[in-house]
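Quarterly update from the structural biology core.
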Amino acid sequence: MAKYEPIPTKRVKIDGIVDTYVGVNPNNRGNEKILAFIDAFKAVAGRTSDACYGLPVELILAMWGGESGWSQYDTQVENQNWSNMMYVDSTYPEGNIGEGIRGWAAFPGRSTHGEAFADFLQGKRYSKLIDYLKGTNNPKSEKCARYIADAGYGGTNHDKYYDEVIDYLESVRKRL
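Predicted structure, tokenized:
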């Protein structure tokens, strides 16, 4: 296994919420960068999977990693918003601490973001995904990604977003 420098983290307390703030990934090479990301987020992705009817951990890691440049994009790190959820108001997405950079929701850290992500995907827009997850004991990442893309998660070009997620997914699978 390749050596990598861990992504720096720190415990934070914001508005009474204790969480783990994740810093910028110090690794620049693909393998090390992705391994460090997986190490920093795998446990939270597992809890998010549990809260979202078994959404595959590898898919959660792929989506968050791809959306955040494997924790190297300033906006996602500053907002602690690994999935680019838009800020609507103080109650949505759940657990946000206000509007962050570029209109995205801001969170105290990775756990509150994971909880909000699970809640977000349980909205009406993603009902086909949730029906699928509730109806199977072994959800397939590709099928879940298709439901997510077709619901418009990555914008109007559903096939393009799906292809991007599958590329991220392959990057994660090589390293799990």
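The CA atoms of residues 59 and 141 lie 6 Å apart.
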